[in-house]
Amino acid sequence: EAGVVQSPRYKIIEKKQPVAFWCNPISGHNTLYWYRQNLGQGPELLIRYENEEAVDDSQLPKDRFSAERLKGVDSTLKIQPAELGDSAVYLCASSLESSGRAGNEQFFGPGTRLTVL
Amino acid sequence: KNEVEQSPQNLTAQEGEFITINCSYSVGISALHWLQQHPGGGIVSLFMLSSGKKKHGRLIATINIQEKHSSLHITASHPRDSAVYICAVSKDTGNQFYFGTGTSLTVIP
To answer: Average pLDDT for residues A97-108, to the nearest whole number?
Structure first.
């Protein structure tokens, strides 16, 4: 069974440029997470989807970050315009869980390492 | 204050040593997760536990719900165990996850 797929694996851009990350979760997983991980830190949740609905985007910097999961499967995370402080690893994860059931295992993708120059 | 605290932050061990990484949390949880992250690699789930102890090969994870504490043990450590080990908890209400900052382990041959 394929795991969570992310692309690209690495991205280097200049500040003020836009950038987009793509995630394909494990088949059948209805919950999808986007995390940002800074060097030496644990992942920080940006947004969580249950199917196509964003159920927790409280930590998403909405002035420059946006995300979508139109058909409840693949998801994209966009930053426009990127800033120097956005350099981090962006992780996507998925789990087989429904609203109200907590504690289900998350499966992580390899991440996209973003460097903003 | 972080909901999940790990110690130590960095750990260097000689090959063969017994290793313990600790995790304390302050929220009510439905499960605790131990994750492994190699440099440049994605995160792999090692254990998910809500009580007692689990063992997988040379890895053992324990949890004490009353004390809100968990430990990850590695027996007969090996250089390939070098990685960052992250403790995470899923809250008992809703689907929020809280992550520790990780413990960077280096095992020297």
So the answer is: 66
**B31 and A CB contact within 8 Å:** yes
Q: What is d(CA B5, CA B24) in angstroms, rounded to the nearest whole number?
A: 5
Å between A97 CA and nearest CA of chain B: 9
H/E stretch holding B59 reads strand B59-64
Q: Does residue B83 surpass a pLDDT of 80?
A: yes
Taking contacts as CB-CB distances below 8 angstroms, the residues of chain B near A41 are 101-102
B94 part of contact set with chain A, CB < 8 Å: yes
Per-residue pLDDT of B37-52, as tens digits, reads 988 778 898 999 989 9
**C-alpha span between A21 and B9 (Å, rounded):** 30
